[in-house]
Design brief:
It is a single chain. The protein is α/β, with parallel strands linked by helices and 173 residues long. It contains seven helices and four strands; from the N terminus they run αβααβαβαβαα. It has a four-stranded parallel sheet, with helices on one face. β3, α5 and β4 form a beta-alpha-beta unit. α1 packs across α2. It starts with a helix and ends in a 5-residue tail after the last helix.
């Protein structure tokens, strides 16, 4: 926590929708892209403040925000392993047809044991993969790292919290 993951993903989402260079460095090719951003990590008030600050820095005014191909939801209590929420998400995706679905943070979108390879594999293959296929979109999901330790590998993938299957699903589909 506090490493800036949400800020980086929000900047990427806005770059995808506005074609503004990501982190003021890298031009986004193609686009603008439709982005559906689900934020279960940050309080709504903070999320809206950050959104306005980023847009101001990108010189996008509040009025233009209404026309951006971005739908941003925060603090909705969404659990994608709950059929009710998954159905609501499918309906939103069907009407908006996003190119990208952003999940901030992965742990907040399921009630499975994140230390279980079986549970996490099931979450990816039974829930996320069908969304990717059905809506022909990509999913950007933030995830937390374990606390640093002397014994831990220097590779970031080995520092991901929870089951190793979480790392195995990167670029999995």
């Amino acid at each position: 926590g506090g490493s800036g993951k949400s800020m980086i993903l929000l900047d990427l989402a806005l770059s995808l929708t506005t074609q503004h260079p990501w982190m003021n460095l890298t031009k986004v090719r193609g686009g603008p892209y439709r982005v559906l951003y689900l934020d279960e990590e940050n309080p709504n008030k903070l999320a809206r403040l950050r959104l306005r600050q980023f847009l101001r820095a990108m010189e996008v005014d509040e009025e233009a925000l209404r026309t951006l191909p971005l739908r941003y939801f925060s603090e909705k209590g969404i659990k994608l392993d709950n059929p009710r929420y998954l159905d609501l998400l499918r309906r939103e995706m069907d009407s908006f047809r996003p190119h990208w679905l952003c999940l901030d943070s992965l742990v907040r979108f399921h009630s499975k044991d994140e230390n279980s390879n079986t549970a996490m594999s099931s979450f990816f293959t039974d829930i996320l993969k069908p969304l990717i296929i059905e809506f022909d979109c990509g999913i950007l999901a933030l995830h937390h790292l374990n606390k640093p330790s002397i014994d831990a590998s220097a590779q970031a993938g080995h520092r991901l919290r929870g089951a190793s299957d979480i790392f195995n699903m990167v670029d999995g589909y």
